[in-house]
């Protein structure tokens, strides 16, 4: 396909604002063109217009706009488009209905039950894509050997065996579908549980729906046959929602050509970086169609097969920046979220961060802040002359790095004026005056430079995270820069990351289009497997295997399956073109009993006598994991899925060469740009006039039609033979930094300290072994000052906020001079700042040569699945003393003089066995492995702190540590002053108070006295009830964590979460109360229940919002063989301008819930229902969110434990709003009895018993009679609300969802 001699070939990227066209002409020349994606006054469709212009200008023939374009001169067309992405962002897809298994109509509304933004009380979550839901009374369950319920005949399609418990009632389905059609909905998404492995019911529904007249029917079993109903459901909904819009666009596009492009090869870019025929282009694979071309473009043009130096792609646009990595293979993810919709499909790992040319600039509480808010295309930056705010683009213009004379005159209300330097400088002067009120003597240019440095550091953090997540050294990469804005920042970002080379392709301004011309045609096929890896090797008999076309009876499973899949991919590609075809096999592998599956290729691991024919996947899998210190040698390896990716090598080869130059390159003009050294004379060159081979010393600016490149001082640019710019980045002439406050450096140090905590977390996740830490990411890492005060903490798990600080400060008081270099401390005791015993905190003092005491501390806190006690999991519902909850460590030296004290810690972990009815840890191996991982994470943190001190000096680093803490303090003081002023005007008082109750009647009472002048407050919990007989006692650290969480929510903007938050606060907690119990009090319920009530009391005092469900609904069940634990969502409280969200976690927890299909696959339980609980939210002007109903049918004998609250007290409404409904725990016995279990219990269950959980709703806000209809939510583009995506974002969301 790539060779179409004598014809024009086109590669076109249709973006949201611009459409880029790359054309290869019949004589081999290349041409690029950029035009507006929408210009209805001049043309209907931008890609068609681009093709028309090239043909007309190059042939001299007329191609009238009002007539279809003659295709006789066109060889092929390749396109990438944002049509699907924009439809998703704008929620302008096709009207869609969802058909789902009975009991799960709200499954996709609830989703993972985690809220996307931890401190957003409104809980802004994108709405679902479907308009109506049809529930189908059918049910398929997985067959289990230990099931003690009556069985049906098994059905088998993969390694899973199934039973049909309820057949499909097609007559009822037909009636429901006709009703949907009558309401004008013609697109249908079908999601039936376990259809990924047995799809008969879905196929029957699909056949019926098509016969009835649905124009788009998407079946989850066809769109992506992978286990996990929620992401598969989102994916099939996206497919049904977006595919009709794509077809609509394609119909309009082809109508602009003669014969509707019948005889032209037309291919579209998919999210996975491969091209597919136009008629196979679908919604679920199209969301990254635009940016995928750019990844292919830089990968092929920047990566050297000889040097094999990995490349970071850096695509900086107007509202965001895309970051990705290429090291000889495309890095894919198989589940990622875009515009709030999680798609389960192969996608390039493109990480989008909310920092682009249009990112807005703020000065908040003494700190420079860039983004995430964006000026957008309208009004755009201030310099666009449309009344827009200051942005990164304005900062570059103010520094002389953008030259208005080289930009077209398309700005202003009439779109006929140049960029306005005057407007930009006017805004900067105003901002500089504001900044100088805080810290004087800044000039406007210094302020602009400061914002550029902060923006650069914000973009460096995701690049560090992307590389270091997989153990790669960021500095050993090439930075490949493209996109309109990236060239101005490339040198600075490369320097900050330690990179030595920046590569900017000659088509960097249109690289996504050029990448389409270089891309391969790809065909993929994927099938579920669910077998142990060993059983896939030759000679093992497997019954059946469903593969695309029917069912095959196979004897040597892997051999024939792979042959069928490879043949299918090859045949599809051969139909498209005759060229080189390669196929690659992937297995989706994980250790049995874990959730951490990896899509593994056997490239470099040839097959042997013990492996399957496609390669030695066992060695590939274990060697990959060894890099991260994580292997489980004796654990079976499971194959979840088999995937074959076929590639047809169809990319063009560029033969264009730049002419060799004689003599030096000549600048077209000189200008003055502002750098760290001040204003410097800067040469300006036109890219098209540069001869290759010559070097340009910075400072310089290189300009072409689509981008501006800044060559900074101490950097050198040269033009390669291919016409590309390659820059060598010199070291930073580091200016000595003093200990006095510099507001720019304050922001940069804040990023650096956070980056240290984040990198510690990556090491801990990579080197740990337990499911809790490695997969659920239930841990926090943090950096502390010499006084033990928190400096930075990542991630922001609410119940850990501030609690670790108490632990570190306890060790300083307790051990003092006994802390030596090489020591590491282990602690979990509540009196030493612990939250509950399974949270083990490992603390490492950081020493510096010549300083006798620690200069910093680093610590990591991880939740260990078991540390002994009276029940497995160490979270007993009926514990009455601390010893019953597991092993206790107060100031235990885990490492002494660099030696890990394995024997001593083992003895301590087994010590609970000495108490009645208690056991030592039930998983010593995982405990020891995870403790070593925590020590390794701390070692990494200590190293990074040392490197920071090496760069700036100890005095400077400690000074900025203090300034960052002061910044958080200032933000809290400002909030308290503002509240005090408003409260005094409203009531004449500077005191607030509130009270709420636990289910046992224990009061939690708060009185807050605010000093308006100082912005300080006393939080006095005097009057709170005494320590309780039970485990709802909450250590002091829990109250402090809840307080920091509330303060951050009330501040309402991103601030450093450190000890400065509590500096203006004095906390009084009566000793012996439920919030400061005695040393041996049981506390496990205080961590997960009482913490929520503390938040309720604080928010009630400040009248922030109505109460949310006020409970985490802790449910666990187990036997001698298995153990399971979950927390369940409820209703969120309403606020002064919003309805509470239904079916979501709130406040001190944000745990993701196990997917229904995973739950039923791994545990002896059937999930009968998981839906919202209508009417449980309190009424009001703004209504509280509804709780959920969750019904679990047990298939074998287990012990069920329930640890809940808000079963007798109800979540309060506020200012006239009604209370939310209380929760309810019911047990339906197999003999017909129905029992109310109460709030806290442990009970033995029989097969056939069903536990029904009804979680509390949220309180309403304001009187219902004050409501004027349903409140209207301001509609925003979802990329403004949810701008981020990619593996770095998913990792952070997973961390904040534990």
UniProtKB/TrEMBL annotation:
Listed GO MF terms:
5-oxoprolinase (ATP-hydrolyzing) activity
Family indicated by similarity: Belongs to the oxoprolinase family.
Instruction: Outline the extent of the Hydantoinase B/oxoprolinase domain.
Output: 743-1263
Q: Could you name the Gene Ontology cellular component terms for this entry?
A: cytosol
Domain (Acetophenone carboxylase-like C-terminal): give its ranges.
Answer: 671-719
Matching entries from PANTHER family are given as: 5-OXOPROLINASE, 5-OXOPROLINASE RELATED
Please report the stretch or stretches of sequence annotated as the Hydantoinase/oxoprolinase N-terminal domain.
10-212
Q: What is this protein called?
A: 5-oxoprolinase, ATP-hydrolysing
Residues spanning the signal sequence: none
Q: GO biological process: what's one of them?
A: glutathione metabolic process
What is the superkingdom listed in this entry's lineage? Eukaryota
Domain called Hydantoinase A/oxoprolinase: residue spans: 232-524
Q: Which InterPro entries match?
A: ACX-like_C, Hydant_A_N, Hydantoinase_A, Hydantoinase_B, Oxoprolinase-like
What species was this sequence derived from? Dicentrarchus labrax
